[in-house]
Inverse folding.
């Protein structure tokens, strides 16, 4: 049933001292999708606690080309800061995360693709039965409402697709932008001439190549489709679905808060404490508490609740409920840097650069609203993924040296068993060219930080993304106060192989710069500039221009407990009866993809006779989007 009225959000009087079957902490990409699935059963009550505001029908969210204006804006963005990074000259980095209802699905780049099969199958190999490509593909189609491009048969069409990889029956709209930057076509042809093939579709499990990607947009209105429009608003009139906004989760309250966990007695969550406008409240759960707060907040909530590394919990004066050393560890992030190029001034280009002119920006916005055309309909169209062997002639020696180094460090006892198993998969994929180690994404404007664009000129930026970092970071609670931001330490370039791979990525962009037909549309390289040639200069440029693409995973890893795991294959937190984590934090080994399409499933049990009442209720969620 689709709601046709303005949604009524819960107020504190609806929630305080009440009991709900499920309490979901976080109304983002995972939380709203899961809430919609669970509340399909009218006998089940669901409460979602969301710390952000609704921001419904907001043009900065709904207009595809306006999303950058959200970053750093406290109404839309948590704008977390990392600790100073020792391998980046002490720099701190802003890690944006969506602060609106819908989480980061309200501010992401809208790119829609699936990871390579090998990356998903690795999750099963690491000790999670059933978490494989075959099951993933089945569940990931369930929420997809795919619309093929109208210009498929046009000779000028750049949008390919494979209908077998899609479904048109789901709630989340997936389609193609009706405008792309013309220079992207020449770039894709240059990639072909450099030996990179064009793929039919980036959702088939094979992403080694280049293609024009689909976006999560409404194919008619050309507006953003995200979990709020797809999963919440159509169901907002369900009497059993409650959304409480601007509610900060303080902690999960357990039935026994004093005695430590014993071998035969798991902790049972009674409910959740949360803060609104400085006041502390409590609400109870009958069945489960489900954390969907993302890879930066879910580990913090666990630690505030007494679940995590013993020494860290004692350091912030939190009583220990369950000792889990893996909480907040194994953080992996897609980092990137950009290279900006000035386009041939003799040609008229459709880039975002002209939007710095207020009159032109107003005209383009009017064109969007009146005809659903123009620059504000554009997204990140060109995606290219490739193994290191395609990028670098030195790949074989670089990979061999990395294996030798890691094996020596493993013999010295540097790595836990769980981390060493992850590294073995990463090394194998590198050696077999199965891993797509580098991503190139095109941004249709000047998007680097060393130089400044010149008014009246047009630019395009190639973003080089590190898909499978060897460096591992951490995210932990800074104090026992829930409104304090977590301590985020990505450990950028702690493993120097990550830097070496990025330098090879930079060199390959210069190969493309000299490959036709893209060569003919480039006037000059602006950043870093041709004077940046030596290894030291390239290292400095990458460190100065480094950013993140906001895809953190691993901080509540789905691994065996003895290997640093936080949740089991049913996403239940070890040592608890009824607490789950359902977001990108559970992904134990990163994937080469923009993770919006990562549909995880509450795979409660493959044996129905072992499924208890709580599990079967959660199983009705089928597949949920576990995305930051």
């Amino acid at each position: 049933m689709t709601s046709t009225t303005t949604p009524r959000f819960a107020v504190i009087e609806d929630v305080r001292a009440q009991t709900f079957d499920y309490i979901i902490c976080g109304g983002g990409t995972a939380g709203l999708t899961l809430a919609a699935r669970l509340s399909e059963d009218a006998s089940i009550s669901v409460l979602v606690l969301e710390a952000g505001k609704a921001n419904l029908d907001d043009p900065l969210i709904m207009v595809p080309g306006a999303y950058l204006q959200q970053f750093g804006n406290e109404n839309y963005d948590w704008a977390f800061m990392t600790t100073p990074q020792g391998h980046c000259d002490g720099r701190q980095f802003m890690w944006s995360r969506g602060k609106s209802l819908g989480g980061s699905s309200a501010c992401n780049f809208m790119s829609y693709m699936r990871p390579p099969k090998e990356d998903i199958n690795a999750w099963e190999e690491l000790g999670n039965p059933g978490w494989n490509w075959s099951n993933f593909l089945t569940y990931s189609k369930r929420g997809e409402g795919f619309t093929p491009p109208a210009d498929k048969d046009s000779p000028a069409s750049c949008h390919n697709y494979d209908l077998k990889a899609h479904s048109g029956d789901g709630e989340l709209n997936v389609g193609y932008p009706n405008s792309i930057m013309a220079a992207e076509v020449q770039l894709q042809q240059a990639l072909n001439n450099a030996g990179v093939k064009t793929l039919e579709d980036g959702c088939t499990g094979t992403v080694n190549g280049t293609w024009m990607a689909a976006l999560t947009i409404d194919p008619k209105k050309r507006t953003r489709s995200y979990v709020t429009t797809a999963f919440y608003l159509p169901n907002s009139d369900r009497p059993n679905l409650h959304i409480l906004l601007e509610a900060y989760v303080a902690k999960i309250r357990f039935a026994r808060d004093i005695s430590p966990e014993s071998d035969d007695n798991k902790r049972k969550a009674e409910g959740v404490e949360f803060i609104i406008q400085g006041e502390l409240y409590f609400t109870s759960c009958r069945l489960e508490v489900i954390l969907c707060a993302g890879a930066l907040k879910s580990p913090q909530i666990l630690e505030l609740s007494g679940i995590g590394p013993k020494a860290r919990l004692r350091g912030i004066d939190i009583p220990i409920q369950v000792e889990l050393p893996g909480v907040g560890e194994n953080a992996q992030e897609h980092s990137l840097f950009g290279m900006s190029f000035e386009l041939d001034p003799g040609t008229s280009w459709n880039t975002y650069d002209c939007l710095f002119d207020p009159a032109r920006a107003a005209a383009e916005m009017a064109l969007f609203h009146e005809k659903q055309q123009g620059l504000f309909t554009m997204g990140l169209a060109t995606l290219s993924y490739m193994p290191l062997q395609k990028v670098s002639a030195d790949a074989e020696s670089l990979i061999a040296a990395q294996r030798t180094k890691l094996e020596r460090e493993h013999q010295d006892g540097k790595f836990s068993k769980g981390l060493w198993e992850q590294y073995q998969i990463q090394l194998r994929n590198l050696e077999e060219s199965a891993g797509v180690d580098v991503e190139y994404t095109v941004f249709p404007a000047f998007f680097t930080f060393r130089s400044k664009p010149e008014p009246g000129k047009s630019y395009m930026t190639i973003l080089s993304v590190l898909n499978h970092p060897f460096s591992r970071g951490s995210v932990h609670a800074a104090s026992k106060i829930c409104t304090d931001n977590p301590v985020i330490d990505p450990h950028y370039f702690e493993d120097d192989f990550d830097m070496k791979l990025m330098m090879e990525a930079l060199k390959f962009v210069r190969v493309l710069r000299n490959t036709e037909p893209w060569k003919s549309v480039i006037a000059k390289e602006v950043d870093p500039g041709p004077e940046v040639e030596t290894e030291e200069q390239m290292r400095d440029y990458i460190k100065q221009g480094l950013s993140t693409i906001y895809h953190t995973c691993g901080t509540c890893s789905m691994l065996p407990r003895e290997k640093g795991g936080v949740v089991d294959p049913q996403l239940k937190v070890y040592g608890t009866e009824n607490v789950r984590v359902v977001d990108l934090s559970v992904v134990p080994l990163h994937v080469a993809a923009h993770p919006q399409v990562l549909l995880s499933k509450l795979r409660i049990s493959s044996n129905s006779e072992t499924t208890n009442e709580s599990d079967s209720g959660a199983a009705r969620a089928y597949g949920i989007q576990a995305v930051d």
